[in-house]
Structure formats: C-alpha cells, structure tokens
UniProtKB/TrEMBL annotation, chain A:
Top-level taxonomic group: Eukaryota
Protein name per UniProt: Ubiquitin-like protein pmt3/smt3
Matching SUPFAM superfamilies: Ubiquitin-like
Biased composition (Polar residues): 1-11
Pfam families in the record: Rad60-SLD
UniProtKB/TrEMBL annotation, chain B:
SUPFAM superfamilies attached to this UniProt entry: Cysteine proteinases (SSF54001)
Record protein name field: Ubiquitin-like-specific protease 1
Example GO biological process: regulation of primary metabolic process
Organism: Neolecta irregularis (strain DAH-3)
Example GO molecular function: deSUMOylase activity
Region (Disordered): 91-133, 180-218, 241-297
Pfam family, one: Peptidase_C48
Length: 98, 570
C-alpha cells in the first residue's frame, strides 16, 4: 500500500508480497515501493540482493525488518511465517551522538 | 541562506515565536538544532555590525540557548561575549534608543549590553578595586547628591565605620557570636535573594525580624550583609545604641579614616535615613539603599509572579486532553536520587581489555564478529563503540536485544522488552497500524510487562523513552536534558491501542527526570542511552556519569562480543 512517508527521507518501503502460490513474477511499483512475488521457500536474500541492485544501496547500510524482527538472508517466507501481503520494511542506518 | 544578519533575524523570529510556547524549549531536538543554528550564525556574524534591533534578537537566541543546554555550548557563550564586546566597542548605541520599559527582559538586555551612564559613575569604584583598595579606603564614593551632602572633613558623632574584611581577626567562636548579636543592633540586613518558590511561605518583613535565625545567618562573621548577592551594609542610625558608638570592639574598630560620613543634619532630622556602601563595582552600587531594598523586593516578587505565570501556563498546556500534569515538585524531590555513585561500575579486567582493543581495530572482513538475535555485528559496527565515535543502530539494537534477552532468561529481573530503534520512527510514520504486529512477533505479553523501553532516534541524537507499567508513567531519558512531548503523545496512543483500552491512561503521567546522567560532549549519547536502558531494565538507579563513559564503552564491546550482559544486578 502506498504510504505517506514523503517527509521522512531516510525510510523507504519495499513492499514485498509473499504469495503462498509459487510465483516467479516480480512487480515493481515504483522506485521506493517494490512489489515482489516469490516462492515461499525462496530465501529472502534474493529479494534483498534485488533491492540493493535496484537502489544502489550497499549491504550494511540498510536493514530489512518483518514486523520489527530483522530478516536474515537465509530466512524464507515460510520460516518467517509471512502471509500474503506482508511487508518487509527497509530502514536506513541510523547514527547519533549529539 | 541570506546575509548573517538576515539569518539571525530569521532564527530569532523563529525562536521568539516559540517563546510563546515556552514548553517547546524542553523538547530536545528542536532545542539542539536551534542552538546549533544560532551558534553557527553567531560565529558567521561575529565581525558584522548589527542594528540595535538585531542585538535584541540575538539576546533571544542566547537566552534560549542558555536555558537548556547550560554548559554544553560553552563555546557559544564565549562567542556571544566576544560579539557583544565588539559591538559595544564599534557601535555605541544612541542613548535616545534606551528603552523605558522595565520588563525583566529589557533590564537584562540593558544590563548586559548597554549601560554607559552607570559605567561612568562606577569609575571611582572600579579604579579603587583595581588598585586593590578595600571599601574603607574609598574616599570619594559619590553618594547621590539629591539626598546627601558630601562632607568628608566633617566629624560627626554618629560615625559608622565599615569593618575591614581582611585580615580576619582571630577570635573565639563565642566572641564572634557575641559580636554578631551586638552588631545586629545597628546593622540591619536583607537576606540574600531567595528561591522565589519558597517566597510564599516567607511573609514576614526582613527588617522586622532581627531575631530570626535565617537572618542571622545572612550576616557573615564580619557583619556584612548581602543585598542581591552584593555585600552591603545598611545602617539605621536611630537604632544604634549609644554605648556602641564610641566603644568599637575588635571587628568594628574604627579604621584610621572614616570612609563614609553621614551628614549631621540628615541623620538627626531624619532618623530613618540609611547609608549604604557597596564593595562591589556593580551598577547598583550608588543607589540609595532604600531604593535597592525596594528593588530587591520588587525583583523577587516579579520573578515569583513570572514563575507562577509560567507554571500556570504549563499546567494549561498539559491539562488539555485531560493529561495529568507532571509538575509534582514533591515527586521531583524524590527523584533527585536518580544517580547513585556508590555502586561504581567496575573497570574492565585487563585481559578483557586486550580483547576489546583488538576488536576495536577496523578490519575489512566480511564475516561478522558476532551473529545473534538475527543481527550481524561487523567490524564497522563495533568500531562505533570506540570513543569518540557515534553509535549506530546495529550496536544499539544488539544491546537492546541483550537487555530483552537478560530479562527473559532470569526470573528475578523485571519483565522488560526493549524495542529496536526502528519502532519509534515506524510508529511516528504510519501510526499504530505500522507496528501492531511487532509485539506479537516478538512474543511480548504487553499486559504483563514492567517496562517497555523504546529507543528514540532524533536524526543525530539517541535518547530513550520508557513505558513504565510499575509507576504508571511515560518516561523520557535524554542525556541532553530535552523533553519529549511528541514521544509521550505517540506512546500514549500506542498503549491505548495496544491494550485495547484496558489500561486506564488517565492516571498515567509524563515524566522527564531532571537529574539523569548528562553528557557534556557531542558524541556519547548512544552510550548514555544504552546504559540508562540497562539500568532501568534491572530496576536500578543510574550508577554512572560522564566520567564512566570510556569504561562503559569497553564494557559494551565486551558484552556484545560475549553476547550477554556481564554486569551483576545491583
């Protein structure tokens, strides 16, 4: 779903649809919201790599979260118990010191 | 950005608009940003000549900056002083622009920047103090001519001799006490200005209570009284007992020459006339004591009124939406023992220190140093724990997981869940629906928790908010001393939604501690945040401050490498 996050530049969405049926289609909504369709057994690393490639962000500067839990590269929609329409949120690295 | 002057005006306008909601000054991020902005502009504008109007606004910025980041922007203050000195030198303000308004703000402004007349009058005093003369040596103190005739050569039977402050005569305690009691017959004092909040219980008139013990204390051993923190002596001639006039003892022995002589006519015809001599070269120094006394009273009542107004204003803000107020002074008093330094954090053993030092050397290795809680800590992450680096989210999140993990694994600890650093931004951005599955996924029994800790990331600053189910309050811990109204609002909404209305939030208060451990630099806030969370998670008092930061950073490296928290519960 499109979100109104225009005001926060350091957070982007990649809405990744995990479809229960084996699917190989990848839907890209726009540059910031990316819709994928993948098999439930496919490691999410594939999506992460696709995201990195598409946005040009290097590994280590973005964090992938499902409902607040970090996504490991070898997690699959099955292992994370994801439902159809669930989101993977992409967060940009935060630093702070002042 | 336009010219420096323009920018200053802009930021000043911004700030003075915010002054209407003074509460805003407690919100940390805005404060920090505004101060930093003002600092930068000031430095830029250091060499510019500004109009009188701009200077007024500069003062706004300066006050705002000082108000809450006292000490943090020490440089800023120096800059301001330098700047003001320069302006005064280059561009003496025309006297016709002098304002007649007597608002507190203007008084300060005038006092800080612009007082040519007073300076002229103070010259003798200043010269004298430069030469190292004590007050009794000053012959040419200009008593305002309207009231007194200066007759330095006249000898008068009602002389008043100022005691020499130094050297102090060595006396026994009983002697001093006796003299103090005696001296009260002739020296009537106004106590040092008090905390206006206490003023309301203090209804008696100062001069009518010479027996009052608190007034006794305001006289020091030499018999000096203090008016408005400046040493002064008020002498009421009518009250001087006859036998003391000629019989000066120890402390009050007449110096070789009388310093201030009271004209005969004045003292005899008007027994209430009083004379004051101020040892400091303050601008109050030449006013008649009556006036200064009145001024002290007026100032006190004025600040008290202002304070009351301010409190009422805060109340009116807070009481909207039925949110109870936090200005519970008794409670704040209790909370003053937040820091307990008795249980000091132990230094890291030297064997561990070697491991830590090794880990803090940057490597380009792709393999993570630690991998736990689905978080990979690489060298580039752990290196942020080397002082003076800023902490990144990986370290804070890993530490949060350590805290949650410890609470889960030991039954005698408070039940704590610490969300990761992305909780708050998600809550802000997409509201409750953005994070409603988080507790389910983390298997948190929301209603059974003691504390839920939410790290807050404010673009360049880490701080902490706590949902405290024990004390029924929302807490905001900021090592820069900011306040978190927005955070409180968000968390209030979150708890309301998450508990599905089961928790009665009308009894919950917002709380920001006044004396939590504070950072005095620009890079340790992440460490403060993590350590504060750790202390809260075991229900303990804070046992650290800025001086422990290096040690805590080392401990954190060790704890992250080990994948568990080391420190014993207090």
């Amino acid at each position: 779903m499109p979100s109104s996050d225009a005001g926060s530049p350091n957070q982007h969405h990649a809405d990744i649809k995990a479809n229960p049926q084996p699917q190989t289609h990848i839907n890209i909504k726009d540059s910031q919201e990316v819709f994928f369709k993948i098999r439930r057994e496919t490691p999410l690393k594939k999506l992460m790599d696709a995201y990195h490639e598409r946005t040009g962000r290097t590994t280590g500067t973005v964090r992938f979260l499902v409902d607040g839990e970090r996504v490991k590269p070898d997690d699959t929609p099955n292992s994370l118990d994801m439902e159809d329409g669930d989101q993977i949120e992409v967060m940009i690295e935060q630093v702070g010191g002042q | 950005m336009g010219s420096p002057t323009e920018t200053i005006m802009k930021s000043a306008r911004f700030l003075s608009r915010k002054r209407a909601h003074r509460d805003v000054f407690r919100s940390g991020d805005l404060a920090v940003h505004s101060c930093a902005m003002a600092q930068g502009r000031l430095m830029e504008a250091g060499s510019q000549q500004l109009s009188w109007y701009s200077r007024l606004h500069l003062w706004h910025i300066y006050r705002a900056a000082r108000g809450f980041t006292a000490g943090l922007f020490g440089k800023f203050e120096n800059w301001y002083r330098f700047f003001v000195a320069q302006i005064r030198e280059q561009n003496p303000p025309p006297s016709k622009r002098r304002r007649t308004s007597t608002s507190n703000h203007d008084q300060i402004l005038r006092g800080a920047i612009h007082r040519p007349e007073e300076q002229k009058n103070n010259e003798p005093l200043e010269r004298a103090s430069k030469q190292g003369l004590s007050s009794v040596d000053i012959q040419h103190v200009a008593v305002p001519a309207a009231n007194h005739v200066i007759t330095p050569t006249t000898t008068i039977d009602t002389k008043c001799y100022l005691p020499k402050p130094k050297p102090r005569p060595k006396k026994s305690l009983s002697q001093i006490l006796l003299e103090r009691r005696q001296s009260q017959h002739r020296i009537f004092s106004t106590p040092p200005p008090r905390d206006p909040t206490r003023e309301r219980n203090d209804s008696h008139h100062p001069s009518s209570t010479s027996k009052n013990s608190s007034h006794e204390e305001s006289l020091n051993a030499n018999g000096f009284a203090y008016i408005n923190n400046r040493p002064s002596i008020l002498i009421d001639n009518s009250k001087i007992p006859r036998h003391l006039e000629t019989n000066g003892d120890g402390d009050l022995t007449a110096p070789s020459q009388p310093s201030v002589s009271v004209p005969n006519a004045a003292t005899q015809s008007n027994p209430e006339k009083v004379v004051s001599t101020h040892t400091s070269s303050s601008n109050l120094g030449l006013e008649s004591p009556r006036k200064s006394k009145a001024q002290v009273g007026a100032n006190n009542s004025k600040t008290f009124e202002e304070l009351q107004e301010y409190i009422e204003f805060l109340h009116s803000i807070r009481s909207k939406d039925g949110i109870p107020q936090t200005l519970d002074y008794a409670k704040e008093e209790r909370d003053k023992i937040i820091i307990r330094k008795s249980s000091k954090i132990p230094t890291l053993p030297s064997s561990d220190l070697e491991i830590v030092k090794k880990a803090l050397v940057q490597t380009s290795s792709k393999t993570p140093l630690v991998s736990k809680f689905s978080i990979d800590i690489h060298s580039r992450d752990i290196i942020t724990l080397a002082s003076p680096n800023w902490l990144n989210d990986e370290v804070v999140n890993f530490y949060a997981s350590l805290i949650t993990d410890r609470s889960k694994s030991s039954s005698d600890m408070p039940k704590v869940h610490m969300f990761n650093t992305f909780f708050y931004p998600t809550l802000r951005r997409s509201g409750y629906k953005g994070i409603k599955k988080w507790t389910k996924r983390a298997k948190v029994d929301f209603m059974d928790m003691d504390f839920i800790i939410v790290p807050v990331h404010l673009s360049v600053h880490w701080c902490l908010s706590v949902i405290n189910f024990r004390d029924k309050r929302f807490e905001y811990w900021d090592s820069l001393g900011g306040g978190g109204n927005e955070v409180f609002e968000s968390l209030r909404d979150y708890v309301k939604e998450e508990s599905a209305g089961e928790i009665d939030l009308s009894q919950w208060t917002d709380y920001y501690p006044k004396n939590n451990p504070k950072q005095n630099n620009g890079y340790d806030c992440g460490v403060f945040t993590c350590k504060t969370a750790e202390c809260i998670s075991r229900g303990a008092l804070m046992n650290f401050d800025q001086s422990d930061m290096m040690n805590i950073r080392n401990w954190m490296v060790k704890e992250i490498l080990d994948g568990r928290l080391q420190q014993a519960s207090a």
